[in-house]
Amino acid sequence: MLIVPFVVQTFGAVAVVGYLSYRNGQKAVNDVATQLRNDISDRIKQNLTYLVAIPFQSFESYDVALSQNRIDLNNGRDVEKFLWGQLPAFPLVATTVFVAANQEMFLGERQDDGQLVIRASEVETNYAVITYTASPEGERRKIINVGKPNFDPRKRSYYTIPVQQKQAFWGKVFSHVTGKYLYIGAGKPIYTKTGDLQGVWMTSLNLVMFGDFLSQLKIGKTGQSFILERSGEMIATSTGEKPFQSYPDKGAQPPTQRTERLKVVNSSNAITQKASQALLEQFHDFKNIQASDQLKFTVDGQNYFVRVDPFRDSKGIDWLVVVTIPEADFMEQINANTQTTILLCLATLILVIVLGILTARRIIRPVERITIASEAIAQGNLNQQVEVSSIVELGKLANVFNGMTRQLKDSLDAIHLANEELEARVDQRTGELRQEKERSEQLLLNILPAEIAERLIRTNESPAEHFEEATILFADIVGFTTISARIEPMQLVAGLNQIFSAFDQLTEKYGLEKIKTIGDAYMVVGGLPVSRPDHAEAIANMALDMRAYMQEVEYIFGESLQIRIGINTGPVIAGVIGIKKFIYDLWGDAVNVASRMESHGKPGYIQVTDATYLKLHNKYLLEPRGTIKVKGRGEMMTYWLLGRREDC
Asked: What contacts 24+ positions apart, CB below 8 Å, involve 290-298?
């Protein structure tokens, strides 16, 4: 009767609090995901606004040159030299073109390797597009390619649409003559003083540039984005997928590629495909999307948040910007907290039951003691004393009972004195044994982690364990071999002891586990033998403090010292091997990679892998080092850990 109400009340309160915490966490995730989608979409639109303005800025430059009579549109060589010279001023532009009303075309082009070339289609060459290398002054040099004759650029949309609009305007997406890329070009018609069409300026952008920008955006952990036209054809995507498919143009001489635009619903990327299908299900046609909107869709049982935004300009651009973010990117910690809450509820249930039992026993035991003492007195054993309970009613009953047996006080006192002397001896011996046990346990704790040592003491075994994620740090004193060759061994050991003792204090400070030292190398790990979510941050803090300490320590060995540190995050196996001279050690590829990060690092630097970078980049300053050749692993992307962010 005492235990059940006590348990139900406490456990119910904990369960309600845990449920409300989970619901609030879900709401917070939705709010954060919405904010992130909005921010990413705004950044994409800002960048697009900047990019699509570039051709029209170039037209202003061309018009200024015309007004100052620096160009003669009737002199093709003069025009192509001017256009070739405009490319360095507009580094994001792919081609600068002038299409004359008489079908001739002159242009400057930036090729794959960054080389600036000249292309021309003239009456003298039967309107074949010929590509020339250019001198530093923009003069034609060597012919590097000759296209088909009778090429008429006036049929292209970048010519026809601006002429129809009678103003600067965007044409449609078109393929490069090589078939390797898709371009989008804007044109501006030029008229004589009498109103006759003289030709069209055209400036084009490579769609690869749009995809490169999207791929550089960090959208949660695994989010994606893409841009499409109202027709459903792809403009660019952050996944690196090409917005077109190429096919050999059979019979073409020289050989060329035929391109076909990619529909987003036919994308090879499942998320891009499902997101576009979800938009079509919602709006029936991409043309019906006239304002920003948000929705959800599911791929392989995983929910994704989607935001779609129209992007338009006054010159003919009408695109859709789509951002997708997996719900799992944000729910991981919430789910982990839910599991923790469930465990806490179970722990609370057990604790409440134990407390209920103890409370019931506290009430029952005084009554049982009086009952037992009464039975003993009834059998002739008068040597009975009942402890007075702190419960008032039971205490009064005990006092009455003790008054009945007070005549046995003298004899009972003598017995008590003898018992106390014996207990003192037992306590003394027990204390000595406890001290010896504590010494042996402390010695074991200095060798092994506390949890492992306790397991060995309790079960005499410590099998190896697998940890899904831990962060390993290797540190090495630069030039130690040279130092050890010129100083006394005792001085060398004393210096190392001073440095490693300071590192040991940092290990204790951040709750990490020192594994071992080998010579001047120091190894420490975070996230075991007890898992912790912030193991990478704790290792990063220790690494920064280690480097700071080495910078402050002066002339331990008669000269300034530098340390080289490497860090990696990944799964490991940890445990104690053998039955003598215990040592707690780690195994696994993550350990080897951490060692490589140290050995391939630089003095005074902290080098981390991409796995550790993903754990730290929100709270720490990291600088990409780039890809390096790592023994046994090939090319790896690594980063320098510089310090903590001031806002974290």
From this structure: 292/41, 294/34, 294/37, 296/327, 298/274
Query: Which pLDDT tens digit goes with each residue over 341-362?
Result: 777 778 877 887 887 787 777 7
Q: Helix, strand or coil for residue 70?
A: coil
Give the start-to-end residue ranges of the domains of the chain. Answer: 1-326, 348-447, 457-644
User: What are the distances in angstroms from CA 60 to CA 57, 169, 173, 193?
Assistant: 5, 14, 22, 18
Helix (DSSP H) and strand (DSSP E) numbers for the chain: 14, 23
- Provide the Cα torsion 505, 510, 515, 519; round to 10°: -40
Q: Is the peptide bond before 533 cis (omega within 30 degrees of 0)?
A: no
State phi, psi for 307 to the nearest 5 degrees: -130, 135
- pLDDT at residue 399 greater than cutoff 80: no
Whether pLDDT at 331 is above 70: no
Residues 403 and 349: their CA atoms lie apart, in Å, by 43
Options 3.40.50.1970, 3.40.50.10860, 3.90.850.10, 3.30.70.1230; CATH for 457-644 is 3.30.70.1230
Rounded-to-integer distance, Cα 72 and Cα 98, Å: 12
- In which residue are the tokens 């309107």 written? 127
The candidate with the shortest Cα–Cα distance to 239, out of 215, 268, 208, 223, is: 215
Which residue type occupies 420? E
User: What pLDDT, in 10s, does the model give residues 182-213?
Assistant: 999 999 999 998 989 999 999 999 999 898 88
Q: Indicate the burial class of 628 (C-beta count within 10 angstroms; 0-12, 13-18, 19 or more).
A: middle
How many CA atoms lie within 13 Å of 499's alpha carbon, on the beta-carbon side?
31
Residue 133: strand pairing partners? 117
Q: Measured between alpha carbons, how far is 588 from 581 in angstroms, rounded to an integer?
A: 22
Q: Is the pLDDT of residue 376 over 70?
A: yes
Asked if 510 contacts 537 with a C-beta cutoff of 8 angstroms, the reply is no
Give bridge partners of residue 321 from the DSSP assignment: 227, 309
What's the topology of domain 1-326?
Beta-Lactamase (3.30.450)
Residues 103 and 109: beta-carbon distance below 8 Å:
no
The residues with which 97 forms a beta bridge, in sequence order, are 107, 202
In the 8-state DSSP scheme, what is residue 315?
T
pLDDT tens digits along 424-435: 776 777 776 676
* 3-state class (DSSP) for residue 372: helix
* pTM (2 d.p.): 0.51
Of 214, 153, 151, 213, the residue nearest 185 (C-alpha):
153
- The answer to whether 455 and 462 are in contact (CB under 8 A) is yes
In order, the DSSP letters of 230-248 are TTSBEEEETT---SEEEEE
Cα gap 568→593, rounded to integer Å: 7
Q: How far is the C-alpha of 247 from the C-alpha of 50, rounded, in Å?
A: 33
Alpha carbon distance 89, 109 (integer Å): 13
The first and second tokens of residue 122, run together, are 């003239």
Report, as an integer, the average pLDDT of 446-452: 60
